[in-house]
Amino acid sequence: MSGTFKVAIIGSGPAGLSAAARAAALGMSHVLLEKTDHLSDTIFKYQKGKHVMATPSNLVLRSDIDFEAGKRETILGTWDEQIAGHKVNVKYRAEAKAIRGTGEAIAGSVQQIVMRARDGTKTVKEVQRHAPPYAIELTNGEVVMAENVILAIGTQGNPNRMRCPGADLPHVQYQLDDPAEYVDEHIVIVGTGDAGIENARGLAEDPAQRNTVSILNRGTEFATAKPANVSALMADHEAGKLTIRTESETKAIEPGFITLTTRDGEIRIPCDRIIARIGSAPPRMFVEECGIAFSSEDRSAFPKLSPVFESTAPGIFVIGALAGYPLIKHCMNQGYDVIEFINGNTDLKPADEPIIVEKFKDLPGQRSTDEWLEFLRANVSILNGMNPLQMREFMLDSEAKFFRAGEVIFERNAPGSSLFGIASGSVAVEVNPADPSITIPIEAGSIFGEVGLISGRRRGATIRAAEDTIVVEISRLAALKLQSQVPSAKKAIERISIERQLLQMFGSGLTREDVAPLVDAARVEEKRAGEVVVAEGAEDKDIFIIRRGSMIVEKQIGERPVFLSYLPAGSYFGEMAVIDGSARTATVKAAIKSEVIRLPGEGFLALLDKNPALRERALQDMAGRRATNAFIEGQKDSFSSVVDMYSQTAAFLVDNGIGEATDVLLIDEKLCIGCDNCEKACADSHDGLSRLDREAGRTYAHLHVPTSCRHCEHPHCMADCPPNAIKRGPDGEVFIDETCIGCGNCQRNCPYGVIRMDAKPPKKPSLLQWMLFGKGPGPGEAPYSWRKKAAEQEGAAKAKQAIKCDMCSGIDGGPACVRACPTGAAIRVSPDKFLTFTKLTEDVE
Amino acid sequence: MATKAGGTGRFTQDERRRDSDHVSFLKHKGFRWLWIALALSGAAIAGYLMIDQQPRPNGGSWYGYTLGTIGLLLIVWLSLLGVRKRRINPGAWSLKAWTSAHVYLGLSLIVIATLHTGFQVGWNVHTLAYVLMLLVIATGIYGVVAYATLPASLSANRKEMTRAQMLEALTAIDRQLESAAQPLDRAEADLVIAALGQDVFHGGALARLTGRYPGCATAGALKGLGRGSEAEARVVALLEKRRDQLAQIRGQLRIRAALEIWLFVHIPLTIALIAALTAHVISVFFYW
Fold it and tell me: Which positions in chain A touch B18 (Cβ < 8 Å)?
């Protein structure tokens, strides 16, 4: 042990490297701990030659080491060189196991760690915090002492380890770099996720390697792997390339052998190598045990941090992806900043200052950036709970805007998922589309636009500035972050959204006071896909509003459930039983994962009693629904097969994700001649790459759902996009902009497999040249070989980026796939318009 | 952004698209082009009957020239469909509308061109152009019938499989066949080898169109193989699987061929028609 360092930096990713380089440049005593034998393991593990991007481009890099977009090898090479050049004190193979304060116990500072078991039970563990210096215990038993600790460990976590006897033997490994390395071995793969399957197939691929490969599956299903991987594995198994051992678990490991427990008892088989791919544990547990509190119990929550990145454990700082900043440039800037803060430079302005200055430059009134941030924080009620660091970060994803009296802020039916907060002034909501003069005011401090945020659907009303108004437009991402960081904001948004939904549901005429008792009694409930909310014949008397997601209504006719209708977000149901006191007449269940607002029936009745107009309206709606149901039931008697067809087709479409779609491509195979003109048109409209696969996908009763984007209400692809490059465009399309870094997260997150990763090919010769002289590959997507050759001729290789349908945004005439269909087989529909009896049973011939 | 939010023009357009019924090219917009074609033909017939053409109805009268010009323009426009379907942008047009118009206006040519001839035919380039046009229309009628009747069977035959998946499935069966056939004797093994060695796409155009493959080695192997031993039974079962998989692939080929074959006549004939038409027009003006 070499005394106590001023600062220990754990993790040598971009954030850690940059911090270490700064510390070295300042001459601060430091150590950089890296668990592997090389720097920056996450980037090191990227595939060879991967192009690493440097977004956001408007953010300046402030670091002692360089970084610009380029090949993985170049970037790692530069860093290795510069870290050596700065004489950074790096300690390799140093994996931190625990961090403890060695000073006095800090009075009243106790960390509560909530542990959730799989069965849903919770246990709380308490950890008393101690003052610095910190003792960092490494897995090899060494201890490193430091006054300050910087955690820059990212979010990858560590692979889960095997637990059986012999699991610590050297031939048990958790990674496979090159399957071609191993020959003549008996290899057992543990774990049947994608990683395990890919490893097993890689090792068994070439018979010349003569490996005997088996893969263990605890059960009989491969629930966590992609279907394509599973079927490939099955085929390899059938072909005798490898063995799948189902219902098998490892009991013990010894050199040369492994013992398995199987359904038929224990077996001992030869085994020279074990590759365990059994997932990885997120680093949260380790971080919490260091005394660092998180902002909430939410899985996606980040640690609570001060404006200088200090966590709730004094002297432990958190930066980088773990702090919620996944982009390399942010990480590197924070590495620099945090060392400056530790060094006492408290006046340092963050590197993103110019970006924030830009956001406020069009607002009236001379205020400094800090004053503006404080102005918004103090005036918009949902922002009250934020600290200055959070405000700054929040502002990066938000916009401050000024509107003169009478200007439109957004229009009815415009798509949009952002939330607005009114910092000063007020706005007017045009509640009646037929008569814009009827408005409801929303005052300063409140919010609007929450319906678009929560339901993912279009704006419900036009909103204008009632006077000169300053608003902050909070992007969907920032709004989600805000809700997970500030629980009070989440509650406020929820309450307002319920209130507005009630007011909007029945048109004008109701006041906030009218609905207040209902709002108080309302509960938001989450429903799994397929979960029954209302059961036919039941006697419960609550009424529901769909807050997000969608529902399907079914009725048991004869022995089979018959699909009656599809209810999009914003609709209400359950009112019949409340109004006439009867049992439930139909079953309502969630088409996809949804949220409903449950309102007590008595409260609703009381509201109806007070408002005759509302009662009238509700009775009208009810009569309409009754008529639809009666119509389908009537058809059932005379045209039973048509109703069955309608019901089953609707169920098929909902199963294939149409329930969460906003605009989806369907192909009527009674008309499709298989010419693939849709794919060709798609490729020719978008950089020469097709974004749809006509043939792939499911078919029912000649209605085919091809592999093509559904523009989901709550797009899965948006969930984890580091540069936030996936957005919803002005026509409702979900698109990926040019800041895509090619990480492939969206491709993995899309349950429908509609995103592909590919490099933009060079331009083809024109159609005329092809028709007259046969130059180039002709219309449609050029074959891979042509693209590769043309790209080589053009020089500089382009990076692979995520590619998906953008609904031909910006192209006159709308989606090319539909326009290019010669027979009318290709149609694009939205579920609320298409999942109806007439549409589904209409005759196309 | 916020002030001009909505892009309302496109939204209305999209809503109209989502609202529109889903109908085939034949029914497009309530048979709009059928009515236009009928009106055109009706007007041509009425004109033919009512206008007193001197000395007799003929391509050379002023009414004959009018009909000829309409017919020529129609033929040129109809042949441009080939360019249109390969050039998606720019323009807010729909190929379905073009196909619909192509079908009905093409049919109306029968009336217009026949009236243009004044029912005078002979062994000359003028009648050649007329006959070529009728052949083009006849092949086109076959095309319409094929488009209206075959797609459903194409879809049913596909059973949610893509073409690549069908071939993959065959490869998987072949791999199993290869190992299963190891215990067989020489003669039987040769039958299996012949089945495995045969190109999936063997058989030529006629086999492809009719779906009959008399030289199919898989069928041959099934016929020639004994059923005695366990190994033989296993191979036979796999060969039956192979036969079914081949049948699906061949079904796909057959229907696709039936959907496309007419284009191999329709388009060359169209080019010949345009050549004959050019000769017809030039000669008419030459001998004015």
Answer: 663, 828-830, 833-834
Residue of A nearest to B29 (CA): A824
Q: Which CATH number among 2.60.120.10, 3.30.470.30, 3.20.20.140, 3.40.190.10 corresponds to the domain A353-505?
A: 2.60.120.10
**B138 plus B277 within the same structural domain:** yes
Distance from C-alpha of A157 to C-alpha of A706, rounded to nearest angstrom = 37
Cα(A478)–Cα(A465) distance, rounded to whole angstroms? Answer: 23
CB contact under 8 A, A473 and B13: no
Q: How far is B170 from chain A (nearest CA, A)?
A: 12
Whether B120 and B178 map to the same domain: the answer is no
Q: Report the gap between the CA of A776 and the closest CA in chain B (Å).
A: 14
Any B CB within 8 A of A347 CB: no
Q: How confident is the model at residue A120 (pLDDT cuts 50, 70, 90)?
A: low
In the beta sheet, which residues pair with residue A134? A101, A146
Q: Which residues of A touch B175 (CB under 8 A)?
A: 239
C-alpha–C-alpha distance, residues A834 and B156, integer Å:
23
Say which CATH class A518-648 falls into.
mainly beta
Pairwise CA distance, residues A110 & A316, whole Å: 15
How buried is A124 (Cβ within 10 angstroms: 0-12 exposed, 13-18 middle, 19+ buried)?
A: exposed
Q: Report the complex ipTM.
A: 0.90
- Contact residues, chain B, for A668 at CB < 8 Å: 22
The residue of chain B with its CA nearest to that of A728 is B6
A542-587: per-residue pLDDT in tens?
999 998 899 999 888 877 888 888 998 888 899 888 888 889 989 9
Predicted confidence at residue B7, as pLDDT, reads 40
Q: With contact defined as beta carbons under 8 Å apart, do A256 and A272 qualify? A: yes
pLDDT digits (tens, 9 = 90+) for A42-59: 888 776 677 787 867 778
Q: Do A673 and B151 touch (CB under 8 A)?
A: yes
Question: Could you report the per-residue pLDDT of A197-209, keeping only the tens digit for each?
Answer: 888 988 888 888 8
